[in-house]
Design a protein that fits this description.
This protein is mostly helical. The protein is built from ten helices and no strands. The chain has one domain: Heme Oxygenase, Chain A (Up-down Bundle). The mean pLDDT is 94.
Length: 203
């Protein structure tokens, strides 16, 4: 693992383990997550992904070169079927996707946009942190649940070989940057937001 991402992940090893051990993740793996919890997550995360799409477009606009823009273009393209996945699940489960998002969700979404204003190194660190957290969490669900799980579509979306390759491409972009205190803080903030987000929907 190259130096920058290795330093970020090593410094956050304890928080990373809390993500993997979070009750939302472990109960999803066990198939014991209450329906109301997953339904709330669908509504909250749908709003977040909509915000994430706008953030990714803004980050692409400040990307330093064609290689970075190409990687982010792939991420943007993947969000269309991802949003459709949420919409299909919401229709099946009777979830209102127009419900008012939580203040935490609004704050997390706003932070995405703020990170772009801090410049490319911070913005790409945030993107890597979000996607790496999702890949590792859903890969752990994939590895500990059966093929007949009701969450199969979401597992496939965030733990596929294609998504793993995308996360590695993002790591490569982060590793082109020299680590700064601002990048370290951004990475920490994303992990705190992710844990708080899952706490919120699991409450």
């Amino acid at each position: 693992m190259p130096e920058t991402t290795r330093a970020l992940l090593t410094a956050q090893a304890a928080a990373w383990q809390r993500i993997l051990d979070h009750p939302f993740v472990s109960r999803t793996s066990a198939g014991s997550l209450p329906k109301a919890t997953f339904d709330r997550w669908i509504a909250e995360d749908y709003f977040f992904v909509q915000s994430f799409e706008r953030y990714l477009a803004r980050l692409s606009a400040v990307a330093p070169d064609d290689e970075a823009r190409s990687v982010l273009a792939g991420g943007l393209a993947a969000l269309k079927p991802e949003l459709a996945l949420f919409e299909e699940a919401a229709a099946e489960r009777g979830v209102d996707l127009t419900a008012e998002p939580s203040l935490l969700n609004l704050g997390y979404s706003a932070y995405l946009f703020t990170s772009v204003e801090e410049g490319w190194p911070v913005g790409i660190t945030v993107l890597y942190a979000v996607e790496k957290a999702y890949y590792d969490a859903w890969a752990s669900v994939r590895d500990t649940t059966g093929a007949d799980t009701q969450y199969a579509g979401f597992i496939a979306n965030w733990s596929s070989p294609e998504f793993a390759a995308y996360v590695e491409q993002l790591a490569g972009l982060v590793d082109r940057e020299s680590l700064t205190p601002a990048m370290t803080l951004a990475f920490d903030r994303v992990l705190r937001f992710e844990l708080a987000f899952w706490d919120l929907v699991s409450a």
